[in-house]
Amino acid sequence: MTLPELSVRVPVWMALMSGAAGLAGICPKWSWRCGAAACLVHVAAAFHFVHGWSHTVAWAATAAQVRSVIGWESGAGLWLNYAFTAGWLMVSCVWDHLPVWARRTWECLFAFMAFNAAVVFTAGLVRWAGCVLSGITLGGWLWFRRRTDAG
After folding, report:
1. If you placed Cys at 92, which of 16, 33, 64, 134 could pair as Cys (CB 3.0 to 4.6 Å)?
2. What residues contact 62, with CB distance under 8 A and at least 6 apart?
3. Domain ranges within the chain, ordered by starting residue
């Protein structure tokens, strides 16, 4: 694997693992912040090394990936990724001040996006690693919620 590929892939897995830690209640404020920072590094590296800082190229790549997975060509998911990254940055800055319903909403959105990133839009060994990480994350989230919501 080349340095540009590592520059794109390592931060996204760091972001996913930090988010998983946040879901499991492991230093949630700092887990979400570290994850948001890693996500931002991933986006910057992808735009630099893969898309040449071109939104048009990123849109086409997203559309091709969506077409290969669900058979429908649309790059609209790129805008969802922009919104998700911005939301993650905002949530990580105000985590301590969010009401419980907002935290749970964010956790569900993160889980949905992470599952799609780690399982649906990957293949091979990476998909299996995503399945394992998703299972561990779900188990940790359920355990942590049961422990904290019970009193």
Report:
1. 33
2. 74, 75, 77, 78, 81
3. 3-149
